[in-house]
Amino acid sequence: MSPRRPPGPPVRALPGLLRKLAVDRLAMMRDAADLSDAVLVSMGPKKLYVFNRPDYAKHVLADNAANYHKGIGLVESRKVLGDGLLTSEGELWRAQRRNVQPAFKPGRIAAQAGAVAEEAGRLVEHLRRGAGRGPVDLLQEVTGLTLGVLGRTLMDTSLSGHDGIAHAFEAVQDQAMFDMVSQGLVPSWLPLATQRRFRRARRELTDTVDALVSDRAARMTAGDGATDAFARMIIAARAHPDPATGRRLLQEELVTLLLAGHETTASTLGWTLLLLARHPHVRDTVREEARSVLTEGRLPEAEDLHRLTYTTQVVQEAMRLYPPVWILPRVAQGPDEVGGYEVKAGADVLVCPYTLHRHPDLWDDPERFDPGRFDPSRVANRPRYAYIPFGAGPRFCVGSNLGMMEAVFVTALVTRDLDLTVRPGHQGIAEPMMSLRMRGGLPMTVRPADRLPAPRAAAAGAGAA
């Protein structure tokens, strides 16, 4: 039987689709999912395939991953990310992945639990001290936290004093989406506001990266350990046969680490805290578990991650509804067949976790916030690729274990000790950029949940593998 051509919207619908691509990309993905599990959008010579079934996702992301390189959106991000781990391909990507992989081994991540817990404890104390002083942007606060964790766990470097990193990356994402929508047809020299912000951000990131590399390299020369991901990047750059190329790749890898190392976890924490504020009964269950496991105001240790089972389910459900990596774009290198549908060489292919996680054949009442979906008894009957918040296949997120530990620890501590209330009128609208951001931040009022002992450090040696 010859491959079929997927259904697609009629030609008259294309203007509306292009408008949604520019202003409401999630609506475009929902429209495609409502039409079929395999959709072909033809825009002149350009072909865009959207696949929305677990077995289709498995084929594109895992079984035939070699045929699908990074695609629309990420290609445009190379203006800043260059050939970093997020955008590189082939042997370069494999070499980069092998180089940083040891920094993400489970034993090493477990050993970082103390640093993650301390940063979370500092956030709670900071919020507690500001309680009652009016709304606080929790998204900004957790972004600062995730940068702090990134610096301590993967870079052996303090990122305090580099507060502009998060704002610079917002400008980078805005430019990447602008380039995607405009198909790169707008000259970069035009003095548009988006492009001016992008150029400033690129200069700021270059200056920041150069300063961080200089500091870390000097400490390595002085005898500091070199097991963190940042140090391993510096060593690889020094070993490159072409010093100029080595320096360029180091810059691009570090920019990627700074972005991917904080953005997705900050997004997850923002959505988790918003959902808990909207669902007090779930918040109360998390608080009860946190106070049962993390007694006497103590900070979590590595072993506590396996005891905070309900909190983990809450974070997993937040990532189902609002996956930080909301879209997985690819470009077919050669012709292929996905679920009996033909895919042309050179076509753009999209797998969208945001819609896959809402597929009515896979999830009962998919728009409802229900952490119980991730009870082990219910997970066992679900297709493996029905839930892919960290991607899948060879390009599965290398930092997923660290990100989960960070999100669970912060959620548990914040909920144990504080009451957060969303400012009236704030809707929490999803803004699909490179990650699934929350438009307008997350303004919340903070007050202590009750009197608890101040968080104390874990016992010496805790958190080791």
Describe, in plain words, how this protein is organized in 3D.
It comes from Streptomyces solincola. Belongs to the cytochrome P450 family. Pfam families: p450. Keywords: Heme, Iron, Metal-binding, Monooxygenase, Oxidoreductase. InterPro entries: Cyt_P450 (IPR001128), Cyt_P450_CS (IPR017972), Cyt_P450_E_grp-I (IPR002401), Cyt_P450_sf (IPR036396), Cytochrome_P450_Monoox (IPR050196). This protein is α+β, with helices and mostly antiparallel strands. The strands form 4 sheets. A 5-stranded mixed sheet has the order 1-2-8-5-3, with helices on both faces. The protein has a 3-stranded antiparallel sheet with strand order 4-12-9. The protein is globular, with a radius of gyration of 22 Å. Residues 457-465 have low confidence and may be disordered. It has a single domain, classed as Cytochrome P450 (Cytochrome p450, Orthogonal Bundle), CATH 1.10.630.10. Helices cover 51% and strands 11% of the residues. Strand 10 and strand 11 (436-438) form a beta hairpin. The chain has 18 helices and 12 strands. The longest helix is centred in the middle third of the chain and has 29 residues, at 193-221. It has helices at residues 14-23, 25-35, 54-63, 74-81, 90-100, 106-111, 113-129, 138-154, 164-182, 193-221, 229-239, 243-260, 263-278, 280-293, 309-321, 353-356, 376-379, 400-417, and strands spanning 38-43, 46-51, 68-70, 136-137, 328-332, 336-338, 341-343, 348-351, 418-422, 430-432, 436-438, 443-448.
